[in-house]
């Protein structure tokens, strides 16, 4: 990779690390990690989500019991103040990363067109 | 998004656009676009690749005829000097983007662990 590209990528990573969005996420993450009950609740929730995702990717239908269990876990984590804040902050970070990626990949889209452009191209 | 993050993302996009890797890719892309025969050959090849991908994602087995057709098209584009250079350059660009993403997402991996770390975590 060209030196300038390398340097600019590191500068962006540093800006991300120093951003309010990341610092808030990091603090909430640590708060959950330090709380055994919260930490276990979140791990359990994530595992259930991953299992459901796996099933969907394999084209399997999750059972009613699994769906009910996932909903119950979701309500539990939503009611937990720190975990719900963490999940909200993860959503914000995901938006930031998405916006960053749009900016960074703009040069490539100028060559190949964005996915939306390609959709229009197929119809028109 | 924080102003600094925004600015740094734009600086990285500019560095990408100005990089040799991108400029070479752009020139090859334009060379193919301006050549009707090459352009049609590449579009045809990409469409066949996309159809095969679609089938794979839907869990369908492509027919022998489709596989033979895809191989023939692949050999044709490989033998075309400009298209084969373009595809080689796309591979290089893909590596650059991958390396960039590793650097940029390092802050998040420091929170969540890289996929490799998670694999080890499940076993250990
Ligand atoms: Ca188009
Ligand atoms: Ca681990």
Automatic annotation (TrEMBL), chains A, B:
It comes from the Bacteria. SUPFAM superfamilies: YheA/YmcA-like (SSF158622). Gene3D superfamilies: YheA/YmcA-like. Belongs to the UPF0342 family. HAMAP family: UPF0342 (MF_01526). This is UPF0342 protein HNR44_001502. It comes from Geomicrobium halophilum. The lineage of its organism: Bacteria, Bacillati, Bacillota, Bacilli, Bacillales.
